[in-house]
Specification:
Blueprint lengths: L3 E9 L6 H9 L5 E9 L5 H12 L4 E6 L5 H11 L4 E4 L4 E3 L3 H11 L3 E6 L7 H7 L10 E3 L2 H6 L9 E3 L14 H11 L3 E5 L4 E3 L8 H21 L5 H21 L1 H10 L14
Parallel strand pairs: 1-2, 1-4, 2-3, 6-9
Antiparallel strand pairs: 4-8, 5-10, 6-8, 7-9
Helix pairs in contact: 7-8, 8-9, 9-10
Length: about 290
């Protein structure tokens, strides 16, 4: 069977109940990747034993398992897998999400045909149930692909990429910031794009999220994410990626978004975030880099 030169990296933390579904969505790819790297991030439940059973089922030559001694965060887990990867492209997948069977076929071949793109992501729907997911993956998505280049100005205003949608060139010099627990993915996309790399959003739904924001503790988590966004802008300014004026404008814009979130209530914001980006009207704002 033809396999794509792709290393799939899946960070695993207390995901014993979902990791099998996740891995099976990779196994069922019409063009499978050459390797899957499962990184257990110091789980204290049955996660490690489950992923070792998956490795036994599908073979050690295809599934690599790394067990971190301590919980170090998703950035460290992803970086660990990235450093071990042997293929030309990296694809990230979270342990509680899943892929459409044509995900690698469509995105990998698109990356090969568009070699100027160092990173691509795509849209992701939220599945209300496993049955809904099974129904969705029976529909072929070939021939539906359109794409849009993501400019730095647009990426600074909002994050169009879910991590489970990302495929990128393995050899780029960046990594996830190991000190970040929130918005670590967004910061990486910003660094890559602001460095002049070409990034694209594919307008086809190739991944599925099962765990959209829950309402419990949502405000607190989003507040921490917002603070991390401020830190992202600060670091981008310190690295001379943006001007101080741009940094201030972005922080003000982020405050406005969070204020609207509080007014709308977190559960409404959560719904709108995945159904429609309520801040699209701001994307044409003038941000000078």
């Amino acid at each position: 069977m033809i396999k794509a030169s792709v290393s799939v990296i899946i960070p695993c933390y207390r995901c014993a109940d979902t990791i099998s579904r996740c891995v099976e969505s990779v196994v069922n790819q019409t063009i499978p990747p050459k390797e899957i790297i499962l990184v257990d991030d110091g789980s204290k439940d049955e996660t490690l034993s489950v992923i070792l059973k998956l490795q036994e089922t599908y073979g050690k030559d295809w599934i690599k398992v790394v067990a971190l001694k301590e919980n170090s965060g998703v950035s460290v887990a992803r970086n660990t897998g990235w450093d071990l990867a042997s293929q030309d492209y990296i694809a990230f997948l979270d342990a509680d999400n899943a892929w459409h069977p044509e995900k690698i076929d469509i995105q990998y071949n698109w990356m090969l045909e568009n070699s100027q793109a160092l990173l691509s992501g795509h849209t992701i729907p939220v599945c209300s149930s496993y049955e809904n997911f099974l129904s969705s993956i029976t529909v072929s998505l070939k021939g539906q692909l359109t794409y849009t280049q993501i400019k730095p100005q647009k990426l600074l205003l909002s994050n169009p990429f879910e991590t489970s949608s990302i495929m990128l060139n393995r050899d780029i010099k960046y990594r996830f910031d190991p000190h970040k627990r929130y918005s670590e993915d967004y910061f990486l996309w910003q660094e890559i794009c602001l460095d002049g790399s070409v990034c694209f959003l594919l307008n086809v739904q190739l991944s599925y999220i099962f765990n959209s924001f829950g309402t419990a503790g949502l405000t607190s988590r989003l507040f921490k994410m917002r603070l991390e966004d401020f830190n992202n802008y600060w670091q981008l300014w310190r690295k001379n990626r943006i001007t101080v004026t741009t940094m201030i404008l972005l922080i003000m814009f982020s405050v406005i978004k969070f204020t609207l979130l509080l007014i709308l209530r977190p559960e409404i914001y959560s719904f709108l975030k995945h159904k429609k980006n309520v801040f699209n009207k701001f994307r044409n704002s003038y941000i000078f880099i």
